[in-house]
Design a protein that fits this description.
Protein name: Flagellar biosynthesis protein FlhB
Keywords: Cell projection, Cilium, Flagellum, Membrane, Transmembrane, Transmembrane helix
Shape: elongated
InterPro entries: T3SS_substrate_exporter, T3SS_substrate_exporter_C
Strand content: 5-15%
Radius of gyration: 43 Å
Number of helices: 13
Distance between the termini: 41 Å
Amino acid sequence: MSSDGQDRTEKATPQRMKDVIRKGRLGRSQDLSAWLGLGAAALMLPAVLTRAQGAAEHQLATVRDIARNPSTDGALSALGEGLTSLLGTLAPLFAGVVVVALTVGIAQGGWRPRRFRIVLDHLKPKSAVQRLVGPQAWWQGAKTLLKSAVVGLVLYVAIQSMIPLVLASGRLPIGELLAQAGSGTTNLLRLGIAAGLVLAAADVFVVLRRNRKQTRMTRREIKEEHKRTEGDPLVKGQIRSRQMAMSRNRMLAEVANADVVLVNPTHVAVALRYEPGTGAPRVVAKGAGAVAAKLRAVAAEHRVPMVEDVPLARALHATCELGQEIPAHLFTAVATVLAFVMALRRKGAAAGRHRLATGPTLSPDDPIDHRAAARAARRPARAGTTTATSGRTP
């Protein structure tokens, strides 16, 4: 176990942090929620005390009226009115504290109902002992002592300042007494919250540090997570290889139905098929290197005529994708080749390799960058396309 802990040197991945938060295992600073809740109470306290002062004065007036004219119904009505007034006065205060505390808790790690479930592992004696003597237990103990000292100091200072008020309470009107008591209580809360927030900041630092330590991962865990989320690279490579092989097989099968295969004569091969009434001829297969050799072999096997035209073959390979019609600027050159092939078919001599008697259909004067086309023909195909330019399987 110790060696495993020492091996956890890698920062937690985003996926690991999501899992930790989802399972409710991310530590939170309870002190921060508590002290900010008290801060909300301190902010709301003046308004609450003002409302309480008005309610108390009204209630005292009601009690005096009942004392002059005693009646059971009047007493019960005054009691109910007093309880309702008390609840209406304190409810906003408690609601504000709860909302702030919950908001801070959710901000630290989200709302996770799993945190409220009973974890049986926590009931084991070994886990209980670790919580009592571990580093976290020492920090909790130190926090308790610090909070006790802070609370004691704040109470001492506040009580010292409120002693004159306590001594004079019998001579002060109820309104003034409540106002001074509220002022003293507000000062007490301000001092306590200021000290508590300092402790909460230290607690947040410790919690964040503990979270980083507990969520660290080993290199093996990162690799396994990558396999689960992104897939095994070896398996993905095998799938990609099979897909490309299937794509090549489908492409080679189209060569048997081609009207002509333009060759380079050894580096590039492009198979064309023309169906009357469907527009321009389409590229049904193309390839470079070993794939071009395979195209030539399939064409020879199915007696598909092959025409050597280096500029045209390179231009078609560089500018056309599989299934795409040839571009308009190559119509004339391709039409010349197809007419040549049709003439050979009429003579019964279409099979095999041929050259145009007039030479290449494209010349250096044509608006085709033959060098760029040749470079494009030698570039390997992009992963995931159906065009193969090499006989090697990735």
